[in-house]
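User: Reviewer 2 asked us to show a designed sequence for the structure in our supplementary figure. I'm pasting the structure tokens here. Could you produce the per-position amino acids so we can include them in the response letter?
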């Protein structure tokens, strides 16, 4: 009768490949191989460590960039040229899950909303230019 067709096979392969390149996965492999932790323990600890690294204000994580943005709520139109350096995460693990479940358009929309939210949390406004 033929082979059973698997839909979105390429996308599943790309998602699995991207997950193996994340900070959390790399930490889990190191904890498992070097410290001899179980797989579940190493994944839990790696998840917490990667979140801790990304939330530290003095450390730029591996998937974060520093962008020049306009200073936020305290400044008015006359002072729009005053800049502020903020950290943004253009690529996150939830993007992979969104793309796998809902598709590319939803993933891109979620990514854009996350960037706007991160800028707002750091009291900055992103420029459209």
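Assistant: Here is a per-position design you can include in the supplement:
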């Amino acid at each position: 009768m033929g082979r059973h067709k698997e839909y979105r096979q390429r996308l599943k392969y790309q998602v699995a490949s991207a997950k193996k390149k994340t900070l959390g996965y790399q930490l889990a492999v190191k904890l498992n191989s070097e410290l001899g932790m179980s797989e579940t323990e190493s994944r839990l600890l790696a998840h917490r460590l990667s979140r801790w690294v990304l939330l530290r204000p003095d450390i730029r994580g591996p998937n974060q960039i520093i962008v020049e943005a306009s200073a936020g709520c305290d400044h008015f139109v006359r002072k729009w040229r005053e800049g502020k350096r903020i950290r943004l995460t253009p690529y996150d693990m939830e993007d992979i899950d969104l793309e796998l479940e809902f598709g590319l358009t939803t993933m891109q929309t979620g990514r854009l909303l996350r960037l706007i939210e991160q800028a707002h949390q750091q009291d900055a406004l992103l420029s459209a230019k």
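For the response letter, you might also mention the following. The chain has a mean pLDDT of 84. The longest strand covers residues 65-71.
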